[in-house]
Amino acid sequence: MIRVFSGIQPSGELHIGNYLGAVKHWVGLQDEYECFFCIVDYHAITQDYDVDALESHTFDMAVSLLAAGLDPGKCVLFVQSHVLEHTELAWVFTTVTPLGELERMTQFKEKAQRQESVLAGLLNYPVLQAADVLLYKANRVPVGEDQVQHVELIREIARKWNTRYGQDFFPEPHAQVGRARRILGLDGQSKMSKSLGNTIGILEELDGIWELLRPAVTDPARVTRKDPGTPEMCNLYALHQQFSPAYTVEEVANKCRTAGWGCLDCKRVLADNMAVALAPIRERAAELRARPERVQEVLESGAERARSVARETMREVRERMGLLSAPQATPSET
Ligand code: AQP
C-alpha cells in the first residue's frame, strides 16, 4: 500500500504558489493512494507569528484546502497539534540527527538570515517534518522544489533510526515534485512565499487580483511600451501558462515579442483568466465558511484517524528504543 503525507503551514493564506506547487497535486493523489494531509501549526510557530491570528489562519487553511478539492471521504485532513505524537517522535529524531545536517539546510539559512536571533525551533524544523512523514510510514511526499532537500534529510533520519533500532521499520520516503515546482512571487525574483508578502491568495477576487498584478515585475528588458520582450524572461508568462488557455498563452508570447501588447494589457488578460479559474474554489470556500461546524467535524475526525496510526507507530518506537511502557500516560490518551 502506498501512503502519501504532506503538510502546509497556516502561516498566512493559501497562495497560488502553494496551490500549484503542492495542493493541486494532492487533490489528484487522494484518488489513488492513502493520503494524510496536515495543517502544520507547530511548524508555523518557528517564525515570528501573530498569536491572535494563528487560530483563524488554521481554520481558514482548512477551508481553503477543502475548497481547493481535498475530500475528507478520500483523504485524512487534520491539524498537527491535535496529534501529539508528532512532537514526541520529533524529539526522538533529534537524538539521531546530526547538527551539521540541519545547519546546512537552505531554507534554514535563508530564514535565519531574516531573523534577529535564530531559534532552535527553526533549526529543528526538518526534524519535526521527518516525524510528520514517518509517523504514518509514508512512502511519498508531494512538495514544491523548496522542500526536496528536507525530504532527503527525512530519508537520512529514517536510515539512521533504522540502523540503530530496527531495520526497515521506517520506509525511506520520496519527494514527488510536480510541474509547477517553483512559482515565483510578484517581485519576479523570490519564491512566492507567505512570509515574503509577494503572493496572490487563491481566494482573491478579480479586483484584488488586478491590484496585485498591476505593479508585478515583468521582463526587465521591457522598459517602455514599445520595447519587445522575451516571454520566457517574464514571471507573468509563467502564470499565463498555469491559468490561461493554450491559444491565449500563444497570443501572449507573440504580442510580447512584437510589443503588440504592453505589460498592462497582458496583466489584464491574466487577471481575468485567473479570476475565472479560481472562481469555483472561491465559491466552495464561501459555502464552507457558512458551515464552520462542518469544517470542525472534518478536522476532528481527521485527527482521530491520524491518531490511530500515530499511536501504533509510537508504541512500536518506544518498545524498540527500550522505553518503559506506560500506556495510561501516553499523550493522546490523557
Ligand atoms: N512558490 C512556491 N512554488 C511551488 N511550491 C511552493 N510551495 C510553497 N511555496 C511554493 C509548496 O507548498 C507546500 C506548503 O508550503 P508550506 O506552507 O508548508 O511552507 P513553505 O514552502 O515555506 O511555504 P511559504 O508560502 O513559503 O510559507 P512561509 O513563508 O510561511 O515559509 C510545500 O510543499 C511547498 O513546497
Give me the secondary-structure topology.
Layout: E1 3-8, H1 16-29, E2 34-39, H2 41-44, H3 51-68, E3 75-79, H4 85-94, H5 99-103, H6 106-113, H7 120-123, H8 125-134, E4 140-143, H9 148-165, E5 174-177, H10 206-213, H11 235-243, H12 246-257, H13 263-289, H14 292-321
Parallel strand pairs: 1-2, 2-3, 4-5
Helix pairs in contact: 3-13, 4-8, 4-14, 8-9, 10-13, 11-13
The structure holds adenosine-5'-tetraphosphate.
Adenosine-5'-tetraphosphate is lined by residues 7-9, 11, 17-18, 21-22, 143-144, 146-147, 180, 182-183, 191-195.
Task: Describe the 3D structure.
This protein has helices at 16-29, 41-44, 51-68, 85-94, 99-103, 106-113, 120-123, 125-134, 148-165, 206-213, 235-243, 246-257, 263-289, 292-321; strands spanning 3-8, 34-39, 75-79, 140-143, 174-177. It has 334 residues and is mainly α. It has 2 domains: 3-183 and 294-321, 3-Layer(aba) Sandwich (Rossmann fold); 203-287, Tyrosyl-Transfer RNA Synthetase (Orthogonal Bundle). Strands 1-2-3 form a 3-stranded parallel beta sheet. A two-stranded parallel ribbon has the order 4-5. Helix 4 packs across helix 8. The two termini are 31 Å apart.
